[in-house]
Design a protein that fits this description.
The chain has about 100 residues and is an alpha+beta fold. It has a single domain, classed as Alpha-Beta Plaits, CATH 3.30.70.
Length: about 100
């Protein structure tokens, strides 16, 4: 069952650091079998109160792999860089990919 890492960057304090993060993170995500599905873009709230600033969704093969990526030594320095450059909300969601 696929796992989806959902981020919303709610505040960027250092755009240069965040740009460095974006330039370096893709190979590490791919090393763990991940792929970006959403990277920013317009969002329209149709129910409730859910203001998104900059949504990001990364798909991984399963929840275990997603957590291994997030906790890996490969990602540790980049995670610290991202966290020093921005504030975000983040969750991991397990779900079935629609293949139709």
């Amino acid at each position: 069952m696929s796992a989806y890492c959902f981020w919303d960057n709610i505040e960027v304090s250092d755009p240069a650091k965040l740009e460095e993060y974006k330039e370096r993170v893709l190979p590490i995500v791919e090393k763990f079998g991940g792929r970006y599905l959403i990277l920013g873009g317009r969002s329209d709230v149709v129910e409730g109160n859910w203001p998104l600033s900059f949504p990001i969704v990364i798909e991984f093969p399963n929840m275990d792999v997603a957590h291994r990526w997030y906790q890996s030594e490969d990602y540790a320095d980049l995670k610290a860089l991202r966290q020093s450059a921005s504030k975000a909300n983040a969750i991991f969601i397990e779900g079935i990919q629609n293949t139709e």
